[in-house]
Amino acid sequence: MKSIDQAKLQGKKILVRVDYNVPLNEQFEVADTTRIERTRQTVDKIVSEGGTAILMSHLGRPKGEVNNNYSLKHVVMAASRILGYPVHFLGDVLSPETEIKIKQLPPQSVALLENLRFHKEEETGDSNFAQAIARLGDLYVNDAFGTAHREHASTATIAQYFKGKAFAGYLLYEEVTALEKVLTDTKRPFTAIIGGSKVSSKLNILKNLVTKVDNLIIAGGMSYTFLAALGVKIGNSLFEPEMVQDAKTIIKQAHRLGVDLYVPIDNVCGNSFTNDAEIFVTTYNDIPDGWEGMDIGPKTIKKFSTYITHSSTILWNGPVGVFEFDNFDKGTKSVALAMAATTLTGAYSLLGGGDSVAAINKYGLSDYISYISTGGGAMLEYLEGLELPGIKALHENE
Ligand code: AMP
């Protein structure tokens, strides 16, 4: 991909697709500013080189209709504070007034368009809509890794109207570099920890990772389907019977490839899915009826921590327990700690996915991880070996 470093920005209006799909609290204030912070370098580059940054994004799922709850107006104040420039709110992308406002912007300004998903054509990747957005800028920069797996008008279709003038922003570039480092320039041993609730949502990433890693740790709700496939009694734990065959295939493939596949060997169980559930810790895996596995047990914590600390590359996606409940978060905390500690001794660590990022933040360890991806779905699809439409569009039009 051509990076923004190769663009001539002086005097140009640069349409920058960012991912400001940030959480808002009840007062419609931005509750987590990470995604805005991560675009600062790109915006700084544009302004400092004499360009004007016209930022565009989606926010939530307004389903093609104008809905004030999802207005990017709510993001303007936080963006101005974090980016360090007054952010001019432009309004709707198709409105003639927006065009006038853009013409009147002083040089080296930063401006933000209204939520692109107020138009259903954004998500359908409509060419006319993409062309209408394109007329507002001289160059196109994609810095929205979190949305790069979507083939939408502003993330993919639009690039064809900027042949030779389509660039990757610093964040997109950095994300791809970090993922490539893990996948192709891997220091071994390479350990992946894949947790979360369902095998079905992570099946493809498991299939691809088993061909790349030395150790594959499968934990969280999805591990119970693997345990069931191994003939272990799992009580009332999360279970996807239709995935048992796939779990068996992955276990066999790991064995054939000499990959060490680890699942929990003991479990912290609850008698209901609440933080206040009665707790029972199994001494080995069998979980009685009426109980469900909600976290990995102490023996598993010890084992997993050892595998992690003996690794040179660590990839983590998905909590290993119901970490939102404080009584069931010790496993996830131990993975976070082991990962941070191993990074301090020189290992390369990468994590992504909303819950894993929330977990590392919950334990105050984010500064000790080599790279934290802003993409959940995008990161998973990249790790599955898929070419993301946003990245493909840049390649085809660079
Ligand atoms: P995912 O979106 O697939 O990464 O799943 C994340 C969710 O998995 C989190 O909300 C966790 O609470 C949940 N989770 C992790 N371990 C378990 C478990 N043992 N049982 C049920 N849910 C779990």
CATH superfamily of the largest domain: Phosphoglycerate kinase, N-terminal domain
- The CATH class designation of the largest domain is Alpha Beta
What shape does the CA trace take? elongated
Average pLDDT taken over every residue = 96
Strand order of the largest sheet: 3-4-2-1-5-6
Count of DSSP strands: 15
Number of domains: 2
Order of helices and strands: EHHEHEHEHHEEHEHEHHEEEEHEHEHEHH
CATH architecture of the largest domain: 3-Layer(aba) Sandwich
Helix content: 25-40%
Oligomeric category? single chain
Radius of gyration: 23 Å
How much of the residues is beta strand, in percent?
15-25%
Low-confidence runs of at least 5 consecutive residues: none
Walk me through the structure.
The chain has 398 residues and is an alpha/beta fold. It has 15 helices and 15 strands. The chain has a 6-stranded parallel sheet, with helices on both faces. Helix 9 crosses helix 10 and helix 11 packs parallel to helix 12. The radius of gyration is 23 Å and the shape is elongated. The mean pLDDT is 96. Adenosine monophosphate binds next to strand 12.
